[in-house]
Amino acid sequence: MENFSLYHFLERMFIVQKISVRKIVSDRQKLYDAVTNGDCKRRKLVGSRYEDLEEILLEWLQECRQANIPISGPILQGKAQQIAREINIDNFSASNGWLQKFKRRHGVSYRAISGESANVSDESTEEWLLDVLPRLINLYAPRDIFNADECALFFKLMPDKSLVLRGEKCHGGKLSKERLTVLLAANSDGSEKLTPLVLGKSAKPRCFKNVKRLPCDYKNQKRAWMTGALFQQWLHQVDLKMQKKDCKLLMIIDNCPAHPKNVKLSNVEVVFLPANTTSKLQPLDQGIIRVVKQYYWKRLVLQHINEIDRPESKCPVTILNAMHFLSSVWNAVTVETIAHCFQKGGIQKEMKELENDNNVFEIRDDDDWKSIQETVGANFHFEDYVSIDDDVLVTEFRELDGIIADHKEDDDDDGNQSDEDDSEVPLDPIPTRNDVLDAVTLFRRYLAAAPTDTEQVDRCLHKLENFVVSSSLASSRQSQIIEFF
């Protein structure tokens, strides 16, 4: 986007001045944020004099709506005055004019809130399965029916420490710095898995330095929790993706406090499961998340075994490494596993029986696990290790005082708090072209001795090698003078 020729093309294509093109490019993040937050009908992006105040107020409003707490205009004005006092804003008046502008800026409208019982009877579940769900899924093909859900992940938890954590709360301190919240979403026939969204505490993890592309999407939140604002932003991103593909989808989610209702979307229809039914109806809770965690912990265990055998290869588990692990294991989840879980949740209409159905979610204490048990003295089963973070909160209702406190801490930290101990996590140097080509050669020697068919992997390795060589040639090309303008 910074290339001179592209600027020139945009000027001629849209008949605008060069300064206008440069202004749009420089404000591209603001424009993108406005669209992903649903604020795309206004012709101009007019900011507020009280951005911090309105950000806190909007976050509190979303928390209340998720908890089905009715909020009126006068209540909003009163809370705005309270926030102004708390963050030391003088001469602020929560007038009716300010309220109307606040509502327009953030797309706020008042709607009646229907009550919801804390407990759902078996009759309600049966009504969903027999009446509501069939009418919905008949309108969509299986590939266009999605489910999304969050889970907690203690991303660098080693087996020798896991027993200590069982049953502990995770609201702050060192334990909270070792956890992430992960949002996963897939369609009912298993043909498409959306890129995982990872939530951490740090806005700029040190391990992200010099990294231009992440294997997963990443957002930060003070407690690494999902919030209504973050989930709404994610929904808008999915909606934009579906607009580009010119297709519509059904997104089935649970009644989590962080899942806002009445989000304006054009290509995504959001449907909520009956309250307190996720253990029976939510496909990702029927085994998909469980399988992802099995694969993840297996990768972590294997790395630990390798470090035991070769101490010089020891590498700290950073958020970036965890995201690479997560992306890899998410891609490894099979179509059959996903389709089976949607069938268990009653969403897949027809599906043939899976072979070895009883073994789809089976956890075995295999030789690798037995090896690490002996090494670290862990006298518990792999299943206990996998399920260690099953009950950890991924969201919670926050009062206004808590939201204000979070924002004050963000200002103090200036977004640089690290989820890792910087003194223990050295930055990895960027590999040179020769380093990468040496690694390709080493991997090719490994494949040559493999007992199984590696034709597909060989093709990927050729593509990797060609990419490295072509990238190196492109970077060595002499720059032209117009590229500096």
Keywords:
485 residues; alpha/beta; Arc Repressor Mutant, subunit A; Nucleotidyltransferase, domain 5; six-stranded mixed beta sheet; 19 helices; 6 strands; 47% helix
Structure description:
Helix 4 (51-66) packs across helix 17. Residues 112-120, 162-174, 354-362, 419-423 and 481-485 have low confidence and may be disordered. It contains 19 helices and 6 strands. The protein has 485 residues and is α/β, with parallel strands linked by helices. A 6-stranded mixed sheet has the order 4-3-2-1-5-6. The longest helix is centred in the middle third of the chain and has 22 residues, at 288-309. The chain has 3 domains: 4-106, Homeodomain-like (Arc Repressor Mutant, subunit A), CATH 1.10.10; 132-386, Nucleotidyltransferase, domain 5, CATH 3.30.420; 433-484, no CATH class. The chain has helices at residues 4-14, 18-26, 28-36, 51-66, 73-86, 96-106, 122-137, 162-165, 173-177, 228-245, 278-281, 288-309, 319-332, 335-344, 367-376, 382-386, 400-413, 433-448, 455-476, and strands at 145-154, 179-187, 197-200, 217-220, 249-253, 268-272.
Describe the SSE topology.
Elements: H1 4-14, H2 18-26, H3 28-36, H4 51-66, H5 73-86, H6 96-106, H7 122-137, E1 145-154, H8 162-165, H9 173-177, E2 179-187, E3 197-200, E4 217-220, H10 228-245, E5 249-253, E6 268-272, H11 278-281, H12 288-309, H13 319-332, H14 335-344, H15 367-376, H16 382-386, H17 400-413, H18 433-448, H19 455-476
Parallel strand pairs: 1-5, 3-4, 5-6
Antiparallel strand pairs: 1-2, 2-3
Helix pairs in contact: 4-5, 4-17, 12-13, 12-15, 18-19
